[in-house]
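for the writeup, i need someone to sanity check this before i put it in the appendix. the sequnce is what the collaborator sent (i think, or maybe the updated version? ugh). structure was predicted straight from it, no edits. if anything looks off just tell me and ill rerun, i have time this weekend
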Amino acid sequence: MKVKPFWVLILLLAVVKFTLPFFLQSNVYELQRDEFLYYHQGQHLALGYMENPPLLSYLGAISSLLGGSVFWIKFWPAFFGAATLVVTCLLAAELGGKKFAQFLAGLAICTGAYLRVYALFQPNILDVFFWTLSFYFFVRYINDKQTKILFCFFISLALGFWGKYSVVFVAAGIFAGLLLTHHRKIFAEKKLYIAALAGLLFILPNVWWQYGHNWPLLHHMKELQETQLKFGSPVDFLKEQLMMLIATALIWLAGLGWALKNKQWRFLAYSYFVIILLLILGRGKSYYALGIYPMLLAAGAVAWERMTQKSVWVRYIFCMLIIGFTSLILPMLLPIWEPGKLASFYKKAGVEHKWEDQKNHDLPQDFADMLGWKELTTKTEKYFQSLPGSVKANTVIYCMHYGQAGSLRFYSNNKEFINRVITDNGSFLLWIPDTLSFKHMIFVGGKMPGKDDEVFQHFEKVTIADSVTNIYSRQLGDKIIFFENADDKALQIAKEGLSKMKKQFSR
């Protein structure tokens, strides 16, 4: 039976959740590689992008209107972290949780992987939020039987689709869970299909964009499978489910057991199993499942509240243990110290960090991806400014990937420099003007272009100008190379190559 939310408590927890990333993260760290991409997508508003749906990019556009500072970019992860906490507490109330259950559910969202996820401006912040919101609305619909709540459920799924396409997993999980329980009778109700139609209509503009650009989502997923997802294993995936939320494992596991025993809410447990199975079959990364756990944390909070009704002192000890354990593992969750100190901590703890290159490194890949960008920008811009005016006017700055291009555009204030930065990586490809022209090129990349990269064989002179020297940065060794005096064939090859690449994503 649903319970009234304790709003003062919930909002206080939400404020804590919002402020934690700002207070905990060391200011030595810069924006993370992917954050540059999503922020710059907001400078080129569209109904879709090569890597992701556009909702996060629209938020990036708002950040840009507010000045484009790091704070306004980081505002959104903090905001959606707080919003996810609120919805999780409300879900606990819908499941019958009183004051302690709502507090415990909110506390759980302040720990573990949710600390890390809600520190980065990435689609995951929307994914987790809308998965949680979808479960909340369906649980509320079961309690209230109001048609408008059913519409809210499908609109949540639709908004989740605009945030990250993986929302299809939660939709499949919920519907499978319903089919496996007595709630399957909802599929005989006409209003379900009317509400579903409303949700489908809501996502059509993005589907149309995907169609018009020859389904870049499929291209992106193929690339992910070839470069990252193929290295995952079901055993590692399941192991990491426990490790991601180890401080609150006793809560979500209790929630899973409680839901299985409760006929009314058994579909929640079945939904969890279906989603985990689908992610394993799809070779998804472990954090793709983070959106399923707020629901289990809410259910687990209710279970713990009921188990400790006669032993209130156990509640205080339990909460203190969660807070204490989270404090101990904070360096694993956020870059709270400068890189050298963090690296020493990991070494003493015997913690290894395997990156996408399948090698072990001193820092987690996410943390290493927050270093070196300002150095790269400063050195590249300094070299560009050292060139004679006539040379600068005919120079393009070509980067190997969007992290490099995005950081040069973000950390520089020189419009002449910014307007010359391009890359054919990801969505940046579509933003390269068809009228591209150059005589010289500053190349930014991890290594010297090979002989198979024909454009670079048509310059008169090559000079290695500088490189990234931050030993903890994933960009360590990235080179700034100046290619001088291209012949006529270089520009022709570049234009033909760009045209061919762009045609892959147009009809």
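The beta strands are 353-354, 360-361, 395-399, 421-422, 440-445, 459-467, 479-486. Residues 70-94 form the longest helix (25 residues).
thx in advance!!
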